[in-house]
Amino acid sequence: MSDEELYLEATNEVEGEKNDPALLTKVMALPEVDRVKVKYQYIKLRVEQLAKNKAEEKPTFTKIIVDEFHLKYMPIAEFSKIKSVPEKIIIEMIRDGFYVGQIKDNEWYVSRDEVGRYDNIKRPKYTSQQSINSKEQEYIPV
After folding, report:
1. pLDDT tens, 104-141?
2. Which domains, ranges and CATH numbers included, belong to the chain?
3. Are 86 and 124 in contact (CB under 8 A)?
4. What is each CA distance from 34 to 20, 42, 88, 123, 137, in whole angstroms?
5. Of 32, 52, 72, 104, which one is least surrounded by beta carbons within 10 A?
């Protein structure tokens, strides 16, 4: 909002019925302001208030910059939750060519295109008691 818009808003307030009564009373109580100058003093003080409020406002949105890599790939932990498959098994499936994945900054990422793929593969269910390193849970490609 430009200064001109702030002055227009303050003028519309003082000339209409939507003025700030507390500010108008304050202006009328000032000893150096006569009745003729009340309107102009109100506009001056109201513009200062509006400018201050504008400066204190937080933006309602922020622009998030996402690089192309994060548009194509998702963290393996997130993918693991979606698929309900342990991360280690997903890494093995990437190495076996079932999923497309990459390592970036020492972390595994899986292609977002893979979210709906291979949902019909029967996978063993794991409990928190079982160890992923166990021979019983060895991954066998279908």
Report:
1. 888 899 998 888 765 555 555 554 444 444 445 555 56
2. 3-56 (no CATH), 68-137 (1.10.10)
3. no
4. 19, 12, 81, 85, 89
5. 32
